[in-house]
Design brief:
Length: 349
């Protein structure tokens, strides 16, 4: 798996708007699969790197206030992160210890433990969630006045990690495609899009089709596999993907979430079908990609499972070339950072 040292200065600690930039003014690294060409641009230049007949598949999931203050039975204050709802009213949650520099995974939860939250709310831990692969996560029963969604909306805040130094309102964690609340963390590959850029793409003949994949907590440790997430592929999107592939267009997934959703319902010949449910698909170089031809995504941590997905598209050598260029030219990482388009050279704009 690709490994590298990320300088602390390259972790985007605030939205580009706080740096005096429009959303679509973040940098865009374009790496062409096939000839290993790397181009440095701005996200507003994106239409110039796509062609009529291409299809952008975007994640329409909206981010929710999934970070809540909670207190353990011994009085310790912790952060409770809501990840995903489960049948029967249970939730997947993450417990994190509050530190001077942010939060850190909490590894000593116990079955039956009760956590107190403001306003008379309570969370009761039931059992570890997949302890062999996700030891940080628990299943819990939540007793929240007014229901979980309303409580989190009123009393919660967006999940953030130590590289983001202050809280930002929820609107900074939404994309222009967000229509269906449910993501614990922002599907951040779509953040740089503006309605103006979407209109420019459509005028050029580039299609835009939505899927939904509600992201769980994404603070994956090194070598940790992604956990199951909820998805939905509308019939119209499946049709658009199949038509695009049939005429030789490129299916460009916006974000690893869109890749995971599409590939969950893709046959080996690349055709996709509508569907919904939970996906536990992990895309690796051995598995490969069936429906997706190109990926637009942010910059990912070393040794993360996301890099395996990118390697499945482009190969280890190309990925290393692209990331070496990103590090050398000081691109910014994480949800408020810069963007990377990996696209084959077979078709040009």
């Amino acid at each position: 798996m690709l490994d590298f040292e990320l300088p602390e200065a390259l972790a985007a600690g605030e939205p580009p708007e706080a740096r005096g930039l429009e959303r679509d003014a973040v940098r865009l690294l374009v790496s062409r699969i096939g000839d290993d060409t790397v181009t440095h641009a701005r996200f507003g230049d994106l239409p110039g790197f796509l062609a009529s007949g291409d299809l952008l598949v975007v994640n329409a999931s909206a981010t929710v206030n999934a970070a809540l203050d909670a207190w353990r039975e011994d009085g310790e204050r912790i952060a409770l992160h809501l990840s995903s709802p489960l049948p029967g009213g249970r939730w997947i949650v993450e417990l994190r210890r509050v530190t001077a520099s942010g939060t850190a995974p909490l590894g000593d939860g116990r079955s039956g433990e009760r956590l107190a939250l403001p306003g008379g709310a309570e969370a009761r831990l039931t059992e570890p969630w997949r302890p062999e692969t996700q030891p940080r996560l628990w299943t819990a029963v939540l007793d929240f006045p007014g229901g979980v969604a309303a409580y989190a909306s009123e009393r919660g805040s967006p999940i953030r990690y130590k590289y983001v130094r202050k809280r930002w309102p929820l609107e900074f964690y939404q994309t222009v495609f967000a229509t269906e609340p449910g993501s614990a963390e922002m599907p951040s590959a779509g953040r740089a899009f503006t309605r103006k850029i979407v209109e420019r793409l459509k005028r050029k003949g580039v299609g835009v089709a939505p899927v939904v994949l509600h992201t769980g907590v994404a603070s994956l440790e090194y070598d940790e596999a992604p956990h199951p997430e909820r998805y939905r592929i509308p019939a119209a999107t499946a049709d658009a993907v199949n038509r695009t592939r049939a005429v030789g267009g490129r299916v460009v997934a916006v974000g690893t979430t869109a890749v995971r959703a599409l590939e969950t319902v893709a046959a080996t010949d690349g055709r996709v079908i509508p569907g919904q449910g939970w996906t536990d698909l992990i895309v690796t170089p051995d598995r490969g990609l069936y429906a997706v031809n190109a990926i637009l995504t942010g910059m990912h941590e070393a040794r993360s499972s996301h890099l395996k997905m990118l390697e499945a598209l482009a190969g280890r050598r190309h990925l290393a070339i692209a990331y070496q260029a990103a590090l050398r030219h000081r691109y910014l990482w994480h949800e408020f950072g810069d963007v990377h388009l990996m696209v084959p050279v077979a078709k040009t704009a």
